[in-house]
């Protein structure tokens, strides 16, 4: 089947919303070629690493499923992503059985942990979810306000074991695991979502801490998310999600062949003074396939801008088509 540039431009966008009330924006997006959304959390929930009392009081499995089914009537193979992190944010809190705590997970055998993750993912599939933006494979051995309360430890081997079990368990239930945030952000002085910040760690240290990414790839993770800030050891100018050097490392040295998902392109450390459209173009050109952006009425303009960039050669039409094809192949697995 042949797709237009406009359809490809929408296929590579993962719009994020903090509400289930998304039909007004999403239906036109899906009708023109979009095929993904992230059902996320509010900033307050993100900071608290927990869903709000107000959300827990009103959100039911039936309400959640009905909201997605309305979109599925337009796009039957819709990718529905959530943050469902072992030890971090769990967007499905209150409507799906919880993942084990980190302390509990550390005491489980691999087989028991895989099964606990599978049960959580099976419940998510019943809610029409298809993708977890997890596990977090970053090994934090310094400060990191962005990932505080979300990571799985400071020992690479321990985190690697948990990440591999998580990937194996959730994917056995039909959920795509998106291992994040490559190449690993062990020490950041600020939150990339709030300030323009860079990772200053040495290349050797970053690679030593990368064992969880290698373990997740060996376990078959279908997707990897790149990080939202520059990694000076590889590319001092561009954030990992817009860096050909970082994405090339993932493809070549780490041998990853699957779907590459950007982190939030709206983050100051990713934008670095550019417009969202310029940043999206840079991310596609660098090799990312699915671009995470805030959802809203601007989606049509953003996607039309991406298509126009491909039309005049600012993006290779072949690169855009390759990215869109990887996304559509993920939808076909549902």
Helix-and-strand structural type:
alpha/beta
Strand order of the largest sheet: 9-6-5-4-3-2-1-10
The total of beta strands comes to 10
CATH topology: TIM Barrel
**Average predicted confidence as pLDDT:** 97
Largest beta-sheet details: 8 strands, parallel
Helix content: 40-55%
From the N-terminal CA to the C-terminal CA, the straight-line distance is: 19 Å
Superfamily (CATH H level) name:
Glycoside hydrolase, family 3, N-terminal domain
Rounded radius of gyration (Å): 18 Å
* The first-level CATH class name: Alpha Beta
The best one-word shape is globular
Q: Which architecture name does CATH use?
A: Alpha-Beta Barrel
Which range does the strand content fall in? Answer: 5-15%
Organism: Paramesorhizobium deserti
Protein name: Beta-hexosaminidase
Pfam family, one: Glyco_hydro_3
GO molecular function, one term: hydrolase activity, hydrolyzing O-glycosyl compounds
Structural account:
The chain is an alpha/beta fold. It has one domain: Glycoside hydrolase, family 3, N-terminal domain (TIM Barrel, Alpha-Beta Barrel), CATH 3.20.20. It is built from 15 helices and ten strands. An eight-stranded parallel sheet has the order 9-6-5-4-3-2-1-10. The protein has a two-stranded antiparallel sheet with strand order 7-8. Helix 8 runs parallel beside helix 10. It is globular and about 55 Å long.
In short:
This protein has 334 residues and is an alpha/beta fold.
State the main characteristics.
334 residues, alpha/beta, TIM Barrel, 8-stranded parallel β-sheet, two-stranded antiparallel ribbon, 15 helices, 44% helix, 12% strand
């Amino acid at each position: 089947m042949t797709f237009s540039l406009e359809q490809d431009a929408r296929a590579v966008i993962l719009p994020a919303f903090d509400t289930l009330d998304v039909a007004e924006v999403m239906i036109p997006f899906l009708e023109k070629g979009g095929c993904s959304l992230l059902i996320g959390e509010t900033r307050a929930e993100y900071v608290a690493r927990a869903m709000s009392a107000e959300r827990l009081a009103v959100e039911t499995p039936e309400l959640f499923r009905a909201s997605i089914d309305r979109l599925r009537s337009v796009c039957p193979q819709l990718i529905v992503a959530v943050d469902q992190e072992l030890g971090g944010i769990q967007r499905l809190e209150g409507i799906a059985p919880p993942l084990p705590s980190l302390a509990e997970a550390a005491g489980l055998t691999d087989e028991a942990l895989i099964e606990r993750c599978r049960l959580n993912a099976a419940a998510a599939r019943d809610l029409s979810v298809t993708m977890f933006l997890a596990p977090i494979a970053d090994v934090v051995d310094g400060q990191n306000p962005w990932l505080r309360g979300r990571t799985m430890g400071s020992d690479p081997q321990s985190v690697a074991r948990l990440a591999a079990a998580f990937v194996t368990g959730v994917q056995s239930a039909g959920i795509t695991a998106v291992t994040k945030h490559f190449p690993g952000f062990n020490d950041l002085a600020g939150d990339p979502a709030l300030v323009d910040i860079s990772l200053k760690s040495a290349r050797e240290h970053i690679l030593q801490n990368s064992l969880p990414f290698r373990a997740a790839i060996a376990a078959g993770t279908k997707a990897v998310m790149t990080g939202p800030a520059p990694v000076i050891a590889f590319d001092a100018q561009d954030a990992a999600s817009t860096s050909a050097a970082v994405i090339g490392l993932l493809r070549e040295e780490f041998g990853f062949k699957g779907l590459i998902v950007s982190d939030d392109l709206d983050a100051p450390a990713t934008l670095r003074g550019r417009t969202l459209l310029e940043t999206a173009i840079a991310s596609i050109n660098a090799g990312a396939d699915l671009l995470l952006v805030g959802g809203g009425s601007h989606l049509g303009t953003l996607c039309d801008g991406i298509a126009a960039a491909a039309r005049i050669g600012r993006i290779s039409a072949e690169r855009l088509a390759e990215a869109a094809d990887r996304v559509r192949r993920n939808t076909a697995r549902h």
